């Protein structure tokens, strides 16, 4: 993700004069910790997703942790989770002492959690399902809502890859967003929780600030002299500098999401012509925030050689993801987990550069180099 001037970066944060001015304004205001900017960012983010309110936190990981805490999920509870995700999705389940139950994906073209698997692995101990909008492609939320309603379990969205997409954050019981540096909008580090339930948001607001009943700004404004602590909270607060960045980035988000989507279409066309052995997951018409540009290399391809060839041509590439259940930490905890489709997807997946500052000619260069890499030895 580091910026290389002549090369093509996998992703770059797009920040400029507006962000600098916003940061300067906060510095000159003399109030750096959580305050009015955080509130303004929460309101703007909620409105962008058709919601009344939101709670800003310092990462998506914190958001997931607090959502599970607010739903009183703990030891003895089981949570349905993907393995084709960033490890944070599943770590949050371990933080609260619950048990992750890994589900396989639908198929190689739709690396979403399979509902059939969910059906088979749901038990009386299941308390929630965490769905993840892989690469920015939106899972079928109405179907998942029905599934969870019938079983009276919570539906949680890990929406780290999908901010600003209509429908995201509306049907679930709570959703978590990431503003990490490589995301569609960034505050360097940061996260947000949406929930249609005001009580859940109120609990999360308290949990993010040590469980205190009145935060620093409320006390500063003289609305409270002291405070109580009536639950075990954390310091997961967002600060004013990050919120100021977020307000600027949020204004650009719709245009950046559109640009990402149109670059994805450019890639699809070129890949179909130049590298027909490479498969692009998802359908062209699928709703997406186009966070990633994943492709599936041919079955017998040596992925490392392809990545090496791309790197020597100045093209960054990556893998999303090594499957969570195969990390050594998770293998020790859950040694018998076998997810054939997830494992094959993760073995063949390669992520190509995608960010709003890319141009069509950059996509040409990436695809031409991929074609050459496959010829040179990527294909066994
Ligand atoms: C799917 C997914 N979930 C959760 C996270 C964690 O986000 P954060 O770094 O904001 O904690 C990420 C970050 O990369 C992610 O991609």
How would you explain this protein's 3D organization?
The chain folds into two domains: 17-248, Type I PLP-dependent aspartate aminotransferase-like (Major domain) (Aspartate Aminotransferase, domain 2), CATH 3.40.640; 253-378, Aspartate Aminotransferase, domain 1 (Alpha-Beta Complex). It is 42% helix and 13% strand. The protein contains 13 helices and eleven strands. Strands 1-9-8-7-6-2-3 form a seven-stranded mixed beta sheet, with helices on both faces. A two-stranded antiparallel sheet has the order 4-5. A two-stranded antiparallel sheet has the order 10-11. Helix 1 packs antiparallel against helix 9 (240-274), helix 9 packs across helix 13 (360-378) and helix 10 (303-312) crosses helix 13 (360-378). Pyridoxal-5'-phosphate (PLP) is lined by residues 59-61, 85-86, 88-89, 132, 158, 160-161, 178, 180, 191.
